Amino acid sequence: MGLQRLGRDTLLYGLSTLLVRGLQIFLIPVYSRALGSGEYGVVETVAIAGALVNLTIALEISQGMARYIADAPDESARRALASTAVAFAALAYAVFALAVTAFADGLAQWLLAGQAPPQTLVLAACAIAVNGVFVIVQDLLRWQFRPGSYVAAAMAYALGSALVGIWLVTVQDLGVAGVFWGQLAGALLGAGVSLSRAGGLLSRVFDVHRLRTMLRYSLPLVLSGAAVFGNLFIDRIVVRELLGLEALGVYGVTARFASVVSILAVGLQAALSPLVFRHWREPGTAVTLGRICRWYLVAMVALVGGIALLSGPIMGTLTGPAFHGGSAVLPLLTLGAMFSTLYVFAPGLFLGERTGRVAFLNVAGALVNLAAALLLTHWFGLLGAALAATIAPAFVFAGYLVLGRPWFTVPYRTPRIAFSLALVVALVLMGMAWPATPTLWDPVALASKGALWCLCLGLAVALGTDAADRHQVSQIMRALARQRSL
């Protein structure tokens, strides 16, 4: 498994994620000023429902496709797998959109609490459906090792959804409906670009035998996907039920800022997964994965620690006054977002095809999240929900580490990764405890926080990695410098 290729692909996939997530974060100041916290609560409610649909409605066929397309013996087999998976997903999402249209009145009253009409829910369902097809077609580009095309599709989606959404919400004053029209436009553009670039893997083939093979692998992951949904969104559901739609709006905006952490993680995962699935039997792959994990945690010291220390200025500058209270929970939500990304470094259960155990583990994590959210949100409000959203993914990551070892063992150098994790937690706690200042960007506070951040990052590099890790990175940097000079 080549580190140079991994580094290059990670940068490209990270760029695509940066475009999508970065523009979503850019939209927060726009939408949070144009929409009230209750209306933004509608956006969050639909996002929660959309996440559940994406994890379940197509029976996780994309996971089955991903597992077998890497091991396919020839191009014909890969084409049959890809075409069958995309056709099945498109049919499943079409059925979903039609079902929402048929029952729109009752669903709108239940989900949107009178904040938007049924027609808006139908529009949102169409956006969710088209986006689901776009994601699986775009994923084909990863398995063709075409990160440049993947970035182009992501750019089309991001720009389409942002430009159309901003125009309709701020100029045409369409409110919440404008957000969903933007998402639909972006998904259509992204799907068009993906189809034009991945056409070599698609044909008029629907192989029932291969569909059964993919579904045998992916069906246990439907339960797992529902549990992953629980791990990601139970805190928001509990906030909505216990604290109301306006509190959900504040919490949801804050969670969007915390999702910055996943920009690095998604880029790395998108590049890493195809390489691990293809090369995991080769000597040295486990060692390389352990090395990447240690450097990833060093990066988390910088990223999570920086967001935690600057949570007040971030929320105060980039959101409307109704959302400023989110600064108290942003550090914890960022820590939870980090824990939710770490499973990529413990792929044993996936490589051993133990998807039933994956489902069991994620269900257990969802139950932990539910119990913690109900209890802690009742006691501590939004802070309790954020704490539950941190405890649950940490529990699931520990499960992946322990249960996956029989099939794939990674030499993590436990004391080193534990040290980096401790630094991340320490910076989060300091960010939460730091006294408020009269001005958002107080220079004395910024200088103190900057010095603390630099100290922790230096300690993470020195003690969270070893000499071989640092030597490997220096070699890669020299190789990249030579390539640029040619």
Quick description:
Helix content is 81%, strand content 0%. The chain is built from 20 helices and no strands.
Kindly estimate the percentage of residues that lie in beta strands according to DSSP: under 5%
First CA to last CA: what distance?
Answer: 25 Å
Largest sheet: none
Uncertain spans, ≥5 residues at pLDDT below 50?
none
| Share of helical residues | over 70%
Number of strands: 0
User: Structural class of the secondary structure composition?
Assistant: mainly alpha
**Overall pLDDT score:** 82
- What count of domains describes the coordinates? 1
Shape: globular
Number of helices: 20
Rg, Å, rounded: 22 Å
Structure write-up:
This protein is mainly α. It has one domain. Helices cover about 80% and strands about 0% of the residues. The chain has 20 helices and no strands. It has helices spanning about 5-35, 35-55, 60-70, 75-100, 105-110, 120-145, 145-170, 175-195, 210-245, 245-260, 260-280, 285-310, 310-320, 330-340, 350, 355-380, 380-405, 415-435, 445-465, 465-485. Helix 2 runs antiparallel to helix 9 (about 210-245), helix 7 packs antiparallel against helix 8 (about 175-195) and helix 12 runs antiparallel to helix 14. The two termini are about 25 Å apart.
